[in-house]
Design brief:
single chain, globular, 219 residues, three-stranded antiparallel beta sheet, Rossmann fold, five-stranded parallel beta sheet, alpha/beta
């Protein structure tokens, strides 16, 4: 009997460090990585670029179904154009959070996400990787961090990229996004019953990665 390709899921709120940690864990194991949030952000970017009504659930799902996406080591391309920086804009992230509860959109992206499960293994980060997309994952992580710490991290990231950022506004946006993600009816943000909760508020990225690798070594 063939065993399924192993998966580690890393879920958690915005700016908890999921993306960076997922890439580092995947690198350490020599596995593939899925940034599921990027697919929602790419959909949001395409909705903005194509001037689609965000409240038109079918039109948004159609956009997601037909995304021309290409992930590469440095980021991602949309319709063959570099989109790595564009999808990190707060406007795009906020719209992605607004679009995420759309069940037609989630259904359109589900198959695309599961297709990333390829040998030798996959590290998948997002909001519902452990609860919905890869329910049979061998290790599920729910990565949390204090909202103040997350807002400061995001502010520092943006300033380092030359993007002006206001900590107070980021904190308000983050609290609003957390509430929206947690309270939504479809795939709300919550840890899977069998997930390990890792609080990275006072951990460095290296320490967070090591704690996940230690958990994996005990699976």
């Amino acid at each position: 009997m063939s065993h399924p390709v192993p998966v580690i899921t890393i879920d958690g709120p915005t700016a908890s460090g999921k993306g960076t940690v997922a890439h580092r864990v995947a690198q350490a194991l020599g596995w593939h990585v899925l940034d599921s949030g990027a697919l929602y952000r790419l959909t949001a970017l395409a909705v903005i670029q194509k001037d689609i009504d965000p409240d038109d659930a079918e039109a948004v799902a159609h956009v997601a179904q037909n995304l021309q996406v290409e992930f590469h080591p440095e980021g991602v391309r949309l319709d063959k154009l570099e989109a790595s920086e564009l999808i990190r804009q707060e406007q795009v992230g906020n719209l992605a959070s607004r679009l995420a509860p759309n069940p037609l959109l989630r259904a359109a992206l589900l198959g695309r996400q599961r297709a990333f499960r390829q040998a030798p293994g996959l590290v998948a980060d997002g909001r519902d990787m452990g609860t919905i997309v890869f329910q049979d994952a061998q290790l599920k992580i729910f990565l949390v961090a204090d909202v103040q710490a997350r807002a400061q991290r995001r502010c520092k990231q943006l300033i380092e990229k030359g993007i002006s950022a206001n900590l107070k506004d980021l904190l308000a946006d983050m609290r609003e996004r957390d509430a929206r993600d947690i309270e939504r009816a479809v795939a709300p943000l919550l840890p899977a019953q069998d997930a390990h909760v890792v609080d990275s508020s006072n951990l460095t990225i290296d320490q967070t990665v090591q704690s996940i690798l230690d958990l994996w070594s005990r699976v």
